[in-house]
């Protein structure tokens, strides 16, 4: 049986009292052992900051295992759930406090799975923020991208963690992903 | 919303926007099953102009992390959060309604114990949001945000107030059809969905560039709830049924055999 999927619609401008919640962006308490920032700015096709975007991350633990723990909405300060959500500020910036994910598959570079929603964006977008490392050059998916396109999926290491800017449109538009068209089968 | 207000006389008319929509609906690239999703590049929705990707979405096979989804539990969600009409000093104004349905994957299997979030305007079409300038009254007894977890058969159920339509500045005399915003998770992160549920028979649907950005009429029709008298309860609330199908979903080994 195959059912036709329900289409998406824009998150609109008024999600701020529906989706954000206390602690949404802190997968771990900021400043706690091992905590890093994943941060960046969301820009539109004119290079203007997008102040009403919602960004989510979903990631593995540092050892590459996937958390099955609840508690992303009511954070207890101990469980690492792997999920976080934040909305951009007036300057288009977002920041998560989190741990560095490990790779979930052998010889594949680690990444944060990311969703982007915004007013003006009619459907959500998926992307990945990859952690640069030796596996970047041998990953078959990244190798399939033109070099300059690939660069849009690489998080930039910095003092506090990683920076990952999201460009919705334009010359250096972020690579956005689709997963449909292939059966997803567990190995 | 944050852009500089344009005088109403300089905004395009509904007639002009409707003509743009009709033209795009006739575009052969919008025909058929390919348009199960909104077109990201849909100029009648003016805010999409600088916010849609211009390059094709890049197909990729999901990796392990993307074939899993965050877990939410009863620690996260209070059962009372599914009733948007409570939690204030008094009763909200408006038509009390029940909105219920099942969350399924593309194989028809229920999505169990997963998070469903909603937010909406009040009966007068006003959001509890600083950016909402619509001169309709706020309701001190209605916030308009709720959450729940699906049960083992994939059912969700909210009690709320029927939201009103509201004006926006996309064009002159632009009105959004009444809607409830929905946010859903599946068993795979790739199924993450944010959408809007509409009400049957709303004359504003035909005029709305956001709804019409899904160019396949059957596909956009899936966003419209059904009035269901079996959901309506005696002397309490009218009922609407709206099922959600999340794209794909991880196949089990059993179904791989069935598929062949
Ligand atoms: Fe809305």
CATH architecture of chain A: Sandwich
Number of domains of chain B: 1
SSE run of chain B: HEEEEEEEEEHEEEH
Shape of chain B: globular
Strand content of chain A: 25-35%
Q: Note the gap between the termini of chain A.
A: 22 Å
Low-confidence spans of chain A: 182-187
Kindly report the average pLDDT value of chain B. 92
Q: What kind of sheet is the major sheet of chain A? A: 5 strands, mixed
Number of strands of chain A: 10
Beta-sheet strand percentage of chain B? Answer: 15-25%
Bound heterogens, unique: fe (ii) ion
Work out the helix count of chain A. 2
Largest sheet of chain B: 5 strands, mixed
Topology of helices and strands:
The complex is a heterodimer of chains A (187) and B (260).
Chain A: E1 36-43, E2 53-58, E3 83-87, E4 93-98, E5 111-118, E6 125-130, H1 140-143, H2 147-150, E7 156-157, E8 161-163, E9 166-167, E10 177-178
Parallel strand pairs in A: 1-8, 1-9
Antiparallel strand pairs in A: 1-4, 2-3, 2-5, 5-6, 7-8
Chain B: H1 14-26, E1 58-59, E2 96-105, E3 115-120, E4 145-149, E5 155-161, E6 166-168, E7 174-176, E8 179-184, E9 193-198, H2 217-221, E10 226-227, E11 238-241, E12 244-246, H3 253-259
Parallel strand pairs in B: 2-11, 2-12
Antiparallel strand pairs in B: 2-5, 3-4, 3-8, 6-7, 8-9, 10-11
The complex binds fe (ii) ion.
